[in-house]
Specification:
The protein has about 220 residues and is mainly beta. The protein has no helices and 28 strands. The chain has strands spanning about 5, 10, 15, 20-25, 30, 50, 55, 60-65, 70, 75, 80, 85, 90-95, 100, 105, 110, 115, 120-125, 130, 135, 155, 160, 165-170, 175, 180, 185, 195, 200-205. The strands form four sheets. Strands 1-4-7-10-13-16-19-22-25-27-28 form an eleven-stranded mixed sheet, with no helix packed on it. Strands 3-6-9-12-15-18-21-24 form an eight-stranded parallel sheet, with no helix packed on it. Strand 27 and strand 28 form a beta hairpin.
């Protein structure tokens, strides 16, 4: 079974599409990045985009060159996946969400609509990102040259859940099976298997046993 590419879609030469891949209306796959002179992103040549079997690139979605996407992934309408991103199998990226460069997303992770996953982030398997979550990676917010050696997004461990509208500050780690409440502002590491809420986020209680992922 071959890939299915809508006539209005653009798939750049060299792109590798697995069996059963669907590239829907006005989607773009294999796009080369255009970088600002002050961008912290790497500038070496990018390998072709690779998309695994039975993945759907939905209407208006954009996937940049140098990215690897697993099997049975759904990239929602108008979502964007930047360069050098690695996405595991059975991941969902919701409508309008943006995954920036040099990010890794583990299998079975769900990213809902309008989330922003900043560059140099790590999301492990079975992570849940609710709508409108914001992650950040630059404590200097664009000022000073020292920022170039300190850009890093959050690390979100296996099974962690991030509530709607939460904000994760640069370089923090959210522990395995942790739960970040809606609207929380996470300024420091979150221990495994706890619920944090508020601004700044603080530990409220443990995650109930029946909500923990099986090991």
């Amino acid at each position: 079974m071959s890939a299915e590419i809508h006539p209005s879609a653009i798939v750049y030469p060299g792109t590798i599409l697995g069996a059963g891949v669907k590239v829907l209306e006005h989607a773009v796959v294999g796009k080369q990045p255009t970088l600002s002179p002050r961008s912290t992103a790497k500038r070496e040549p990018l390998p072709p985009t690779e998309i695994g079997a039975d993945t759907i690139v939905s209407t208006g979605a954009i996937v940049f060159a140098g990215t690897q996407i697993g099997e049975r992934v759904i990239l929602g309408d108008q979502s964007c996946i930047r360069e050098r991103v690695a996405i595991g199998d059975d991941v969902v990226v919701g409508r309008g969400s943006l995954v920036e460069n040099d990010t890794t997303i583990g299998a079975m992770t769900k990213i809902q609509a309008d989330a922003y996953i900043t560059a140099y982030s790590t999301l492990e398997e079975h992570v849940f990102i609710a709508p409108c979550v914001v992650t950040t990676n630059d404590n200097c917010m664009g000022r000073t040259e020292k920022r170039f050696g300190n850009i890093k997004g959050p690390t979100i461990r296996r099974g962690a859940r991030i509530g709607g509208g939460a904000i994760l500050c640069p370089q923090i780690e959210v522990g395995e099976d942790a739960f970040v409440g809606a609207g929380a502002v996470v300024t420091k590491d979150v221990p495994p298997r706890v619920v944090v809420v508020g601004s700044p986020a603080r530990v409220l209680r443990d995650v109930p046993e029946d909500e923990l992922l099986a090991h």
